[in-house]
Write a structure and sequence with these properties.
Blueprint lengths: L9 H18 L14 E2 L3 E2 L21 H9 L5 H22 L9 H14 L2 H20 L22 H10 L3 H11 L8 H15 L15 E7 H6 L4 H10 L17 E11 L4 E6 L5 H27 L20 H7 L10 H14 L11 H10 L28 E3 L9 E6 L3 H6 L21 H4 L9 H14 L4 H8 L15 H21 L16 H4 L7 E2 L4 E2 L20 E4 L3 H26 L5 H22 L9 E2 L9 H8 L11 H4 L4 H5 L15 H16 L1
Antiparallel strand pairs: 1-2, 3-4, 4-5, 6-7, 8-9, 9-10, 10-11
Length: 753
C-alpha cells in the first residue's frame, strides 16, 4: 500500500495542542530581567540552556539543548515566579531530560515522556553532578512531571524521584573532608590578623580593602558581598541600661568590660560592683542581607568593637575622595572640580596634559615625558578625545564624564541584593575609583567603581589568572598573604560565615537566634553551616551523661562523687612548671611534657622552649655546623623557587627562618659581652609544629579550634552533684617541693637571661 494511515488518539492531540499554546503564551510573558534576548540560548542573570558540565562562558552550539526541547525549556523557565534557587532546580531537570531523550530517541518530545525517561533522567543527574545538586535535580523532575500532568501535556502516571537527600553526617571521612573545605585555615586567620594589626600607613589600598572587609566579616556571619552594601555611617551606637543589654543577650562579663572602657566622669574611682542600672553604650553595624532577609542592625561582639571601628575608619578614609566626587556630580551640573582638576574657566580650551588631569589621571607620578605620554594618550583615546592640544574644555569633558558614569547613577547598580539595596555612591563605604586597588595601573579619579566579592576572594588566594601571551600564571599579581611574606595561604570570605555559625552552635545558641544573627530567612538552612567536630559531639554526650548521673545521685541514698577534670586542673599544669630539662645537641629543652609531647619533634632551633648555655664550646660548634649546612641547602631551595618547582616556596621560607635563628644564636654564643654560663633563649618564632607540616603534606589545613566556653569554665563538683559542702582530703605539701624548686630555677633563668 502506498498510503499508510497512522491513527493518533484524541488525548495525544490535546497534549500537543496544550504544549503549543503554553509555548506561545509564555513568550508573551514579561521577561525575568532586561539583560537577555528571548531567542538567545544564553540568558544573563537567569541561566544557559546548555548540557551538564558546560561552563557559563562556553558558547559552543554543540553544547546547547536539542532544538526540539528549546521552545518548551524557555517557556517553562520564564513561566511562574521563581527564585534564583528555583531557576536552578528547573535547569537541572531540563538538562537531565535533554540528555536522556537525545541519547535514546535523537530528539525530545515532551508529550511522550514516560516513567523510564524520568528514571534515566534521575540516574543521569546522579552521575553528572554532586549529591546535593542531584537531590535538587530530583526535586526539579518531580516538579516538572506535576506541571505536565496538571496542564494536560502528558498522560498521567505516578513517579517519584529516587534520589535521597544527602545525610548531614558529622563524623567520618566524608564529613571531615566537608569540614576541611568549608572551614578556614587557622594559619591564614592568624596571618590576616597580623597584617590587619599593621599601621595604616604601611598598608596598601588593596591591603586596607581586604583586611578591613574580613574584619567586618569576623564580627557577624555575613555573606561576602554584604559589607559592600554598607553606608559610610554604618556604625550604630545606642545607650541603654545594663539590665536591658542582658535581656538582649549580652553577658555580664561583657557589660563589665564595656563599663571599664567607657570614658569616666572625671573621678578616679572605678565601679567595684556590677550595677544593673549602669548605662552602657552598645555598638552595632547596620547591614543589608540578601536572600529576602532585609535590613538589620547587628550588635558587635565586645571583642570586635575596636577592630571593627578601626576597619570602618580605614574604609571611610579610603573612600572619602570618591564619595566627595559623587556628591559634586549630584549637587551641580557643572564639571566636578576634584583635587587634580586644573583651575581654569569652564570654556577655556585645555592642553592634553590638562585634559588628562581633569579626567583624573595624576601625571606627577611619571618622571619622564615618555612615561607620561604612554599613560595619557590611551586615556584620551578611550574617552574619544583627539590627541591634540586645545580641542576640549571642561564643559566638553563634563559631558564625557557624565556619559561614562555607572548605570543608575547616583545609585549603585548592585548585581546582587535583589534590587532592594538603594545606596548612593556619595554614601557608600566602599565607593572607589577605577584602578584604585591595582598596584600596576593608574587610578582614574573620574570613574567610579565598586569592588565585588571576586575582588575580595581573588586577594585571599594565589592568582589563577594567566597571561594571554604566555598562558602562565601572572607573576606580579600577589595575594595579600604573598605580599606580606606569608606564603601561598588560601582563605575565602564565606569560610568565616561557616566558622562563626559553628562557634554559635557549639556554644548553645538556638536555631532561630542563629538564623537571625546570620540573617537567614529559613532557620532550616542552619544545618549547612554547622561543622561541629565529632569530639565536640562526644563531649556533649559525656556531659549529658554526667548530668544524668548527677541528677540520679541527688535523689539517691547512695553517695557518689563525680569529678569533672580537664588536662590542666592539677597544680603543675596551672603553674606551667617544668618538671624536666632535657639535654639536646644544642642546649636543653625546658618544656613541660605533662600536657603534651614535643610538638616540634626535635626541631629545637625553631622552638621557643629551647635554651642554650653560653660558654659550651661543643654545642656552639654544633650550631656553627648546622648553620653552614642550612646555608648550603638554602641556596638549593632558592634555585628551586626560581625554577618554579611546585611547593618550593614553603620550604625556602622555612629554611630561611632556621638560618636566621642559627645566626642569632651563634652571634649571642660568641658575644664577649655575655658571661659564660648565661642562659640564651630565642623567642617569637612562628609556632609551626610537625602536625602543621603533616597536614600540609597531606593537603589539609589546620582548622581553628572552636571552643565551648560553657564547658571550659570552671565547674564545681558540689554544684554538679548538688552538695553544699564537700570535704576534700588534706594533701601532703611535700608532694610539691620539687615543683617549688623548679619554679625557683625558672625564675633564676629568667633573671640571668
Amino acid at each position: 500500500m502506498s498510503n499508510v494511515f497512522t491513527f493518533t488518539p484524541q488525548h495525544e492531540l490535546e497534549h500537543e495542542k496544550n504544549l503549543q499554546e503554553f509555548i506561545e503564551q509564555s513568550r508573551k510573558l514579561p521577561p525575568l530581567n532586561d539583560k537577555y534576548d528571548y531567542d538567545s540560548n544564553y540568558w544573563a542573570g537567569v541561566g544557559n540552556f546548555t548540557n551538564f558540565g558546560v561552563s557559563n562562558q562556553d558558547r559552543d552550539p554543540a553544547n546547547v539543548f536539542d532544538a526540539s526541547l528549546l521552545p518548551f525549556a524557555k517557556a517553562y523557565v520564564v513561566y511562574g515566579k521563581s527564585t534564583k534557587a528555583g531557576l536552578s532546580v528547573k535547569f537541572y531537570a531540563l538538562k537531565a531530560i535533554n540528555v536522556v531523550c537525545v541519547k535514546q530517541y535523537g530528539f525530545v518530545d515532551i508529550t511522550k515522556l514516560t516513567i523510564g525517561d524520568f528514571d534515566q533522567a534521575a540516574k543521569i543527574a546522579r552521575e553528572s553532578i554532586g549529591a546535593g545538586a542531584a537531590y535538587q535535580a530530583g526535586r526539579g523532575l518531580n516538579n516538572l512531571l506535576k506541571f505536565l500532568i496538571e496542564n494536560k501535556m502528558v498522560s498521567p502516571f505516578t513517579w517519584k524521584s529516587p534520589i535521597k537527600k544527602p545525610a548531614d553526617n558529622a563524623t567520618g571521612d566524608e564529613a571531615d573532608e566537608h569540614r576541611q573545605k568549608k572551614m578556614p585555615d587557622e594559619n591564614a586567620l592568624m596571618a590576616l590578623a597580623k597584617i590587619s594589626a599593621a599601621k595604616t600607613e604601611d598598608l596598601s589600598p588593596r591591603d586596607v580593602f581586604t583586611t578591613s572587609t574580613m574584619t567586618l566579616l569576623f564580627s557577624a556571619p555575613a555573606r561576602g558581598s554584604e559589607p559592600l552594601y554598607l553606608r559610610a555611617d554604618c556604625l550604630h551606637s545606642e545607650k541603654m541600661k545594663a539590665n536591658r543589654a542582658m535581656e538582649l543577650g549580652l553577658a555580664k562579663e561583657d557589660i563589665e568590660l564595656l563599663l571599664q572602657k567607657q570614658p569616666s566622669d572625671g573621678s578616679d574611682d572605678t565601679p567595684s560592683r556590677f550595677n544593673y542600672d549602669d548605662e552602657i553604650t552598645l555598638k552595632g553595624l547596620r547591614w543589608y542581607s540578601g536572600k529576602s532577609y532585609g535590613h538589620e542592625n547587628k550588635w558587635l561582639p565586645t571583642v570586635m568593637i575596636d577592630s571593627v571601628m578601626t576597619a570602618v575608619e580605614r574604609l571611610k578614609a579610603q573612600s572619602a575622595e570618591a564619595r566627595a566626587f559623587a556628591k559634586m556630580l549630584e549637587e551641580s551640573p557643572d564639571f566636578p572640580r576634584h583635587p587634580l582638576c586644573p583651575d581654569v574657566p569652564e570654556d577655556k580650551p585645555l592642553t592634553m596634559d590638562e585634559a588628562a588631569l581633569a579626567l583624573g589621571m595624576d601625571l606627577s607620578a611619571y618622571d619622564t615625558k615618555k612615561k607620561k605620554d604612554s599613560r595619557r594618550n590611551p586615556l584620551l583615546k578611550r574617552k574619544g578625545i583627539e590627541r591634540k592640544d586645545y580641542v576640549v574644555s571642561l564643559r566638553d569633558l563634563n559631558k564625557i564624564v557624565r556619559r561614562d558614569l555607572p548605570e543608575g547613577f547616583p545609585f549603585i547598580p548592585f548585581k546582587k541584593g535583589e534590587g532592594k539595596v538603594k545606596l548612593k555612591w556619595s554614601d557608600a563605604l566602599y565607593a572607589g575609583f577605577a584602578n584604585a586597588l591595582a598596584a600596576q595601573k593608574s587610578t582614574c579619579q573620574t570613574e567610579l567603581v565598586m569592588p565585588t566579592i571576586n575582588t575580595l576572594n581573588e586577594d585571599l588566594a594565589p592568582t589563577k589568572k594567566k597571561s594571554r601571551t604566555t598562558d602562565k600564571s601572572l607573576q606580579n599579581t600577589l595575594s595579600v598573604f604573598q605580599r606580606w611574606g606569608c606564603g601561598d595561604l588560601v582563605l575565602t570570605s564565606h569560610q568565616l560565615r561557616h566558622m562563626l555559625d559553628t562557634m554559635a552552635a557549639v556554644n548553645g545558641m538556638d536555631g532561630e537566634m542563629r538564623a537571625k544573627w546570620a540573617q537567614r530567612s529559613d532557620p532550616k538552612h542552619n544545618r549547612y553551616y554547622n561543622h561541629t567536630t565529632p569530639e565536640e559531639y562526644g563531649a556533649d554526650f559525656i556531659e549529658d551523661r554526667e548530668n544524668e548521673l548527677a541528677t540520679q545521685e541527688k535523689a539517691s541514698t547512695t553517695q557518689i562523687q563525680i569529678q569533672v577534670a580537664t588536662p590542666r586542673t592539677i597544680q603543675e599544669l596551672n603553674t606551667k612548671a617544668s618538671l624536666t630539662a632535657h639535654t639536646t645537641e644544642f642546649g636543653m629543652c625546658v618544656t613541660s611534657y605533662l600536657s603534651e609531647p614535643c610538638t616540634k619533634y626535635r626541631d629545637c632551633v625553631n622552638c621557643n622552649e629551647h635554651v642554650c648555655t653560653k660558654g659550651d664550646d661543643g654545642k656552639c660548634e654544633r650550631i656553627r655546623q648546622r648553620l653552614a649546612r642550612e646555608k648550603k641547602l638554602l641556596k638549593q631551595d632558592k634555585k628551586a623557587v626560581d625554577d618554579g618547582v611546585q611547593g618550593a616556596e614553603q620550604w625556602y621560607q622555612r629554611r630561611k627562618l632556621t638560618t636566621e635563628r642559627c645566626e642569632q644564636l651563634l652571634e649571642m654564643m660568641e658575644d664577649p659581652n655575655i658571661e659564660d654560663g648565661a642562659l640564651i633563649k630565642l623567642a617569637n618564632v612562628e609556632d609551626v609544629t610537625q602536625l602543621d607540616r603533616a597536614l600540609e603534606a597531606n593537603g589539609k589545613k589546620r582548622l581553628p579550634e572552636i571552643v565551648n566556653f560553657k564547658r571550659v569554665q570552671s565547674v564545681s563538683v558540689e554544684a554538679l552533684i548538688g552538695k553544699a559542702d564537700v570535704e576534700l582530703p588534706e594533701m601532703d605539701d611535700s608532694v610539691f617541693d620539687d615543683l617549688d624548686d623548679l619554679d625557683e630555677l625558672d625564675y633564676m633563668m629568667e633573671e640571668e637571661g
